[in-house]
């Protein structure tokens, strides 16, 4: 038996005895690594005569190829054995019913927008939309907001930059969705019933305020509309949205430039054990602002205030989402935390339905 035969037998036996991939790698390095025995013998070929080099070199190449093939085969065998062992512990009974998987997650703001759209659609309100970058006229002047009003100052509103000499009227990131009501009246005239949900922007940031948030505003214009109609619409909305049998609202006199008379609206509630309960208790919680549309606003939108009148209201979508679903911090709505979204989010195909229950 030659030295190469002895070397072959040694490593074939070692390959067969390797119990795992780590041991097999040690064998490979000992035989075929840069400092392995086969590699060292290949370096000795330079010291041999041409005749010897040809014979021994061919034998070394055959041995190297054989060992490499054996190593690959053994590695594949170890992998198959490991897979078999894992499959014995990780089995699946295909006769069991499938496990439902959530297909995406709906953000609470999107869910609440869908809920309130369903509620107001049931009362005959269409959805109106408008641009988020508005002219100074639509955002302020048409809504009877005077030039000296605090909302028209740069510390409250995001004004768009203008080039020197630009004669166009100033533009802002809309501070409310009321400009959509002006555009809707200009386009459709009266009578009209619309809600305007969407993003709005104000310079504010704390636990209950963010520079960008969401509002929904409602508008109803007809010949004989009164505050009584407004009260009924808001009561029906709150009852359906909070999914309670009854609610009690309290109207407090207030002032908004675009409505007259104006009222802040509170809802009866309790905070027993730190949990908000709507429609019961001795507490009151402010949820929205409302009033009868100011005649100047109607005139600016091209509606004759001598023939038509109506009401308007507005509320924060993020705020009512926090109240309904127990979300403590407004800033979490905009932090893109998937863990938060999985906890507070909604199933993608679970559409709100008044008959079946909004949040079910």
From TrEMBL:
SUPFAM superfamilies: Class II aaRS and biotin synthetases, tRNA-binding arm. Its cofactor is Mg(2+). Residues 110-335 form the Aminoacyl-transfer RNA synthetases class-II family profile domain. It is found in: Cytoplasm. CDD domains: PheRS_alpha_core (cd00496). Mg(2+) binds at residue 260. It holds the Pfam family tRNA-synt_2d. Keywords: Aminoacyl-tRNA synthetase, ATP-binding, Cytoplasm, Ligase, Magnesium, Metal-binding, Nucleotide-binding, Protein biosynthesis. GO terms for biological process: phenylalanyl-tRNA aminoacylation. It catalyses: tRNA(Phe) + L-phenylalanine + ATP = L-phenylalanyl-tRNA(Phe) + AMP + diphosphate + H(+). It is an enzyme of class 6 (ligase). Binds 2 magnesium ions per tetramer. Gene3D superfamilies: Bira Bifunctional Protein, Domain 2. Its EC number is 6.1.1.20. One of its GO terms (cellular component) is cytoplasm. The keyword Chaperone does not apply. Tetramer of two alpha and two beta subunits. Belongs to the class-II aminoacyl-tRNA synthetase family. Phe-tRNA synthetase alpha subunit type 1 subfamily. HAMAP family: Phe_tRNA_synth_alpha1. This is Phenylalanine--tRNA ligase alpha subunit. It comes from Cereibacter ovatus.
